[in-house]
């Protein structure tokens, strides 16, 4: 009976009973893989290095292991291999996420598999190899996937020969280019295409090349292709199109249908494009919409979001980076199918809904009538991005109970309260940093065994952090716990054999006293930030072996280290050792270093010429040490890649290297506070990107370097306290110094008349409105400039320079003649100092136009006449010094002038009136106004910091307070409170978001 049943099965399945062996073994009736195809597969895979895939997609959706590929076994049973059940030919190969590394050779054995119908090599690293024309030889190919496989070069037109192709995915290979002729052939010949993903470089392709796409197309993705111009309208009307993604084509525009838009579209991505979007109209037309991505878009019409809960089919919604404000309609969470929600980088206010009461909590400034009903926990939510908003209150308990939640980003808000207990282990990324959370780090974090990234920095967390919290987190790669002043890490830092996959650790400002011992086993560490701690003494020898081949960023600044030893890190690119107690000779960083700072230490000796072997260095800061001898002449050769060079406050002498490369890339050069002499190197004219030049406090002997006028980006020029001499003369160029904001020529031997024409062309000091708006600083993400200036008679170091900060200091020279009236056009000026010269004539009334002026010093000259009454209108003026001149007449009264003391006017025998003791004739108004009428003045600076002070007259205490206040306001916060360097780059966050959509 069994024999009959088996024979019947053979007949029904194969219709060829003779294929069933006499032994009636069903397995043996299936054709075996052909030996030459088995060998071809093995040879192909063995032509690559094989490791762990580091692509984020592969972390999300792990593929079966490819460890079953062994010689002598049936390849039809190998992981990722499919054979034709009739012939045994290999018809499908899936090697995606296999960690393959190396080029695909044109004579690869892969191309001998002529029967292939499906080929998936996505998420590997083929090392920039080109796609061979032999890919066009797979005549039966229906599915080809090379997504994110690091292929490059021109797209081979032979792929257009694959007439049976229904799915082509080349996405994420931005080294590949598709030209217009190849694209047109592809569209013309591949008439059966249903899925097309061409996220490659198509910057030379006009969008109308897509006009004739097949009507059978169901999916079209052109993400970040460099497309520009108008997108064809007809594509929105393709009858079968379900997915359309043209996101991140910044110069792509077009128009969406406004009526009669009948489409099965369920995925629409228009993020970061120029499409004008009427959101209510779009939502009303797209009834089947499930995934909508509109990050950083151009919205027109109403911005009312109250209708969004009507999107009952929506599963993924991205409205990030759109500056939306007000309350978010949280009732959208009622949608049981919602899996992805990104509202980050907006200005939403209020609190997350408290589902225990089925009502939305509202802030005290809002009426309870604005609360919105939320009836259920969004139990299918996978990704929740709410970063960079104004949300407050506690994080509600339901957030910790969603079983599917993998990505939770609540950073940069105003959440308070404790971090709750996590009920499930699904979380992969958890970012709670930059809030007002307090209390302990919950032990329930130990449940999150899938966690790869945890950030809780910049909160008020407290209590002991035990190593047992992290002992089971074997996948954790990023751990940032910095700047929690009450958090104790002593137990955690001495643990061993935990966090084996850690590659980014930030424990800055965490009160630790030693380098954490668990780093001994951190073989993959790449980013390590331990700045602003209490780490003392020598760097231990074992630490120099940590991440020897992997460490790229190391920040040990603001500690108490005395020695670093021989640096062994081969791939180190960023090393910050500033503000320690390092002694001895200058440490030698690895040759591949990009950022190197040992500023503010006790390093002695000379700068060896070996520093010039740093062929990749962009930022070199050796300032505030005790380095001596001469500057190596070869430093000039670094200028073709060096961006910032800071050698100020050392004991260097000799001349400045004169050979500056023609391809000079310098943006900032600071040599202040040395013993350098000789002239300035005129080869600096090659540095067209120069913004900051500081040669102050040296012994440079030269005339004014008029050739600097031609530098178009120069913003700061400091020549203070040198031996410059001769007249300034008028500019040699028609439009000199167009961007100059700070110029300090004080304490030199310049003479002659002030250059009237110079002040007429200082455009950056004139345009007040152009300097207002968003608070910006000179520098970049890696390095922000600092400078020492004289403000209100005192020296201050601006640890960051506001781009709107402007000052002129020509004091302590031998200038003569009158003050040019054209200075009154410099409406952005904050400070103006012409003291200690031989200037004559009257104080120009035009100075009353400088409404932003905060200090004015014209003391120790030969000025005469009355003080212009127009100066009373300078309501920002906090410091005035007109002493030691020949001024006469009554001192103007009112506003700020009621706050200045006698010191502002002394040694002007002709002046009278308050606050001088000598009255003006019979005038009775010489007494200071009664205390009840002394004005309260509000100082509110552009960064929102507000300071109120009662002006009781100018004195040393007020002077110091106002000066220090300006320093704090200008810098936002002192540099020792600024954590500039930490964490992965933003592109990793964007990449995680894109992959988290699914």
UniProtKB/TrEMBL annotation:
Similarity annotation: Belongs to the RLP family.
Keyword Cell membrane: yes
Subcellular location: Cell membrane
Keyword line: Cell membrane, Glycoprotein, Leucine-rich repeat, Membrane, Receptor, Repeat, Signal, Transmembrane, Transmembrane helix
Any Pfam family matching the protein: LRR_1
Signal sequence range: 1-22
Native organism: Quercus lobata
Domain Leucine-rich repeat-containing N-terminal plant-type: start-end pairs: 35-84
Protein name: Leucine-rich repeat-containing N-terminal plant-type domain-containing protein
Membrane topology summary: Single-pass type I membrane protein
Transmembrane regions listed in the UniProt entry: 945-969
Domain of life: Eukaryota
């Amino acid at each position: 009976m069994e024999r009959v049943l088996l024979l019947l099965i053979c007949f029904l399945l194969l219709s060829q009973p003779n294929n069933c062996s006499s032994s009636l073994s069903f397995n043996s009736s299936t054709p075996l893989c052909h030996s030459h195809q088995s060998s071809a597969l093995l040879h192909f895979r063995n032509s690559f290095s094989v490791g762990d895939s580091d692509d984020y997609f592969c972390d999300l959706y792990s593929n079966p292991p490819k460890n079953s590929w062994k010689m002598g076994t049936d390849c039809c049973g190998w992981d990722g291999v499919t054979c034709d059940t009739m012939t045994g030919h290999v018809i499908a190969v899936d090697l995606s996420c296999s960690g393959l590394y190396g080029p695909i050779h044109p004579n690869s054995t892969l191309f001998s598999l002529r029967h292939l119908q499906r080929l998936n090599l996505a998420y590997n690293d083929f090392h920039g190899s080109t796609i061979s024309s032999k890919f066009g030889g797979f005549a039966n190919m229906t599915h080809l996937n090379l997504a994110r496989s690091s292929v490059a070069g021109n797209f081979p037109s032979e792929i257009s020969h694959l007439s049976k192709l229904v799915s082509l995915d080349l996405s994420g290979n931005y080294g590949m280019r598709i030209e217009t002729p190849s694209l047109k052939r592809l569209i013309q010949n591949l008439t059966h295409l249903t899925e097309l993903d061409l996220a490659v470089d198509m910057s030379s392709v006009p969008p109308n090349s897509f006009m004739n796409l097949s009507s059978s197309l169901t999916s079209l993705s052109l993400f970040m292709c460099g497309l520009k111009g108008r997108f064809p309208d007809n594509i929105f009307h393709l009858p079968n199109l379900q997915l359309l993604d043209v996101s991140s084509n910044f110069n792509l525009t077009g128009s969406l249908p406004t009526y009669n838009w009948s489409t099965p579209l369920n995925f629409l991505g228009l993020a970061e494009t120029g499409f004008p979007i009427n959101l209510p109209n779009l939502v009303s037309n797209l009834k089947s919409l499930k995934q909508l991505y509109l990050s950083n878009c151009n919205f027109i019409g109403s911005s009312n979001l109250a209708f969004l809960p009507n999107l009952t089919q929506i599963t993924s919604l991205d409205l990030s980076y759109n500056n939306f404000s007000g309350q978010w309609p949280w009732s959208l969470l009622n949608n049981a199918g919602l899996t992805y929600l990104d509202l980050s980088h907006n200005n939403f206010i209020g609190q997350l809904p408290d589902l225990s009461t089925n009502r939305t909590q509202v802030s005290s400034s809002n009426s309870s009538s604005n609360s919105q009903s939320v009836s259920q926990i969004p139990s299918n939510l996978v990704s929740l991005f709410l970063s960079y908003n104004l949300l407050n209150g506690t994080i509600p308990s339901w957030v910790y109970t969603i079983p599917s939640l993998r990505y939770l980003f609540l950073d940069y808000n105003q959440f308070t309260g404790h971090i709750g207990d996590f009920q499930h282990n699904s979380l992969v990324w958890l970012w709670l940093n930059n809030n007002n959370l307090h209390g302990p780090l919950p032990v329930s974090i130990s449940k999150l065994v899938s966690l790869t990234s945890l950030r809780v920095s910049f909160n008020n967390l407290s209590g002991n952090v035990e190593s047992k919290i992290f002992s089971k987190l074997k996948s954790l790669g990023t751990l940032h716990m910095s700047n929690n002043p009450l958090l104790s890490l002593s137990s955690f830092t001495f643990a061993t054999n935990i966090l084996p996959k850690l590659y980014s650790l930030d424990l800055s400002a965490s009160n630790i006293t030693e380098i954490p011992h668990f780093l001994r086993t951190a073989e993959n560490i790449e980013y390590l930030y331990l700045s602003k701690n209490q780490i003392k003494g020598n760097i231990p020898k074992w630490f120099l072996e940590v991440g020897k081949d992997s460490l790229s960023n190391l920040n040990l600044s603001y500690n108490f280290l005395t020695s670093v030893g021989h640096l062994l890190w081969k791939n180190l690119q960023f090393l910050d050792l500033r503000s320690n107690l390092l002694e001895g000779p200058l440490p030698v960083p690895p040759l591949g270093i990009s950022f190197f700072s040992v500023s503010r230490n006790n390093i002695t000796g000379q700068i060896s010429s070996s520093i010039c072997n740093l062929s990749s260095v962009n930022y070199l800061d050796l300032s505030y040490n005790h380095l001596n001898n001469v500057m190596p002449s070869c430093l000039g050769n670094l200028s073709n890649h060096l961006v910032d060079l800071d050698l100020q406050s050392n004991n260097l002498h000799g001349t400045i290297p004169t050979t500056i490369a023609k391809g000079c890339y310098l943006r900032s050069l600071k040599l202040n506070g040395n013993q350098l002499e000789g002239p300035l190197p005129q080869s600096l004219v090659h540095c067209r990107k120069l913004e900051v030049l500081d040669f102050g406090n040296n012994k440079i002997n030269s005339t004014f370097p008029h050739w600097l006028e031609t530098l178009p980006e120069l913003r700061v020029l400091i020549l203070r306290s040198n031996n410059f001499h001769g007249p300034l003369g008028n500019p040699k160029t028609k439009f000199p110094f167009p961007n100059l904001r700070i110029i300090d020529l004080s304490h030199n031997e310049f003479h002659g008349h002030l250059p009237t024409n110079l002040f007429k062309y200082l455009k950056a000091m004139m345009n007040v409105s152009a300097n207002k708006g968003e608070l910006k600083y000179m520098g970049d993400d890696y390095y922000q400039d600092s400078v020492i200036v004289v403000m209100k008679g005192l020296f201050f170091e601006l640890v960051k320079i506001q781009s709107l900060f402007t000052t002129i200091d020509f004091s302590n020279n031998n200038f003569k003649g009158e003050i040019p009236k054209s200075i009154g056009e410099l409406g952005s000026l904050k400070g103006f100092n012409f003291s200690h010269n031989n200037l004559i004539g009257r104080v120009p009334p035009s100075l009353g136009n400088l409404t932003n002026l905060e200090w004015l010093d014209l003391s120790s000259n030969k000025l005469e006449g009355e003080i212009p009454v127009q100066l009373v209108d300078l309501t920002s003026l906090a410091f005035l010094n007109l002493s030691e001149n020949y001024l006469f007449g009554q001192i103007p009264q009112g506003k700020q002038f009621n706050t200045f003391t006698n010191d502002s006017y002394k040694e002007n025998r002709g002046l009278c009136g308050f606050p001088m003791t000598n009255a003006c004739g019979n005038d009775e108004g010489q007494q200071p106004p009664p205390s009840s009428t002394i004005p309260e003045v509000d100082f509110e600076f552009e960064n929102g910091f507000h300071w109120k002070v009662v002006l009781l007259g100018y004195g040393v205490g007020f002077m110091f307070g106002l000066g220090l206040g300006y320093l704090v306001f200008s810098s936002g916060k002192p540099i020792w409170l600024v954590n500039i360097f930490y964490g992965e780059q933003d592109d990793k966050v964007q990449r995680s978001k894109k992959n988290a959509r699914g």
